[in-house]
Structures are given as C-alpha cells and as structure tokens.
Amino acid sequence: MSSLQYEFLTYEAFPLDPYVKEVVQVVFNGAVILPYQHISMKNGGSFWGFPGCAATLADGSKKRFNGSFNVSTDKIKFEADLELFLKKKSGVAIQGQINKDNAATDQQTTFLAPKKDGGEVGNDNLPF
Fold this sequence. Notes:
Layout: E1 6-13, E2 20-28, E3 32-40, E4 46-49, E5 52-56, E6 62-66, H1 72-90, E7 113-114, E8 121-122
Antiparallel strand pairs: 1-2, 2-3, 3-4, 5-6, 7-8
C-alpha cells in the first residue's frame, strides 16, 4: 500500500502556448508542490507529465531527466483522480494520454485549494 497523498490545487489552461496546454499544481504529502502539465508535441502527439530538464554532456549530447512516479499503482490512481478533477472543473473529458481504463479507487482524493488569507485549506477559493 502506498503512502502517497496528494491534493490538486489549481488548474490553468494556455491555449496560445505551442507546447504547454494545461498545468495542474499538485501538493504531494502536504509538503511539495509540483506542476503536472499537458504537453503538445510538434508531431501532434500529447501527454501529461511532470516537467523535466536536459543537460549537455561533454560530447555535446543531451541527457534528459524526467519526473515520474516511483510506483505504477500510484500513477494509475493519480491519473484517474486527475481525470475526475478536470472533468469536475470543465465538464469535459481531458485530452492527452491518461489511463482511462482505470477508475479511481474507493479512496477518493479531496480536491482543495489554499485559502488566500493563508488559513486552512478549503474549496471556496477554487478558480472555477
């Protein structure tokens, strides 16, 4: 059983950006906030994932470092919960590669946003 806990904080769409189409800010285990982004590629494909980076090696080649889930069952549940979050937000199915064959587990994720006054977390300040 995984101890991964997360909350979806914010959602923002970027229809004019050629690559980053949507970003969801997620807080993991109550401590780390990371963006999870919907990327559109030049070849027409798209996917959701954590931002990565690349470094140039001595021979001039690039080495990529990509964020990912450590446990595949965490990713399956996260993506199912993300799909529910985006459907509640927009009322439409999400785009990109999300594992749509796996429904969220009985353990429902709470979608919360921080209060602007810095108080307790709540749903009343969601941007939608």
